[in-house]
Each structure stands twice: as structure tokens, then as C-alpha cells.
């Protein structure tokens, strides 16, 4: 996805990192870059809004239940491994 406008960060990279941003898993420079992009890019902001609403709906319907730490760590490790395989271990603005 791209809005066609010039940005410091490609729209696709921002949208790929939206859940990391929502979960507070980005470092400060990454958060600032993503927030700045969302502030200037309406299509990405709309997509971000949809993602945010889905996340809030899931949180509301799950009643605040939390997975056991061992399961959480296992899932995070598998996600990191999958990202590594796709060369997306962390959000990079380039």
C-alpha cells in the first residue's frame, strides 16, 4: 500500500510495524517515526485505526484473560523466528 505521497518511511513498512507500535514493542525512535508517518498519511492512519479497533475488540471480548508466561514466551520466540526468516526482525525506516 502506498498513498502516492512522498514520505520518509514507505507506507508498507509502517503498516507492517503497526501491531508492534500498538503493543508498545517499538523503541522510541521507531515509535516517533511511525507516529510522524501516521500524522501525515491519511490512508495509513485509516488502516492503523482499523487495526487498533480490531485489537481493542479482541481485548474486550477476551475479558482481559492473559496467556501463561511460558506460552507467551514461546509464541514471541516463534514470531521472532518467522520475522527473521522474512528479514523483518525489526522495523527499519530505510
From TrEMBL:
InterPro entries: Anit_sigma_mycothiol_RsrA (IPR024020), Znf_put (IPR027383). Residues 11-44 form the Putative zinc-finger domain. It comes from the Bacteria. This is Mycothiol system anti-sigma-R factor.
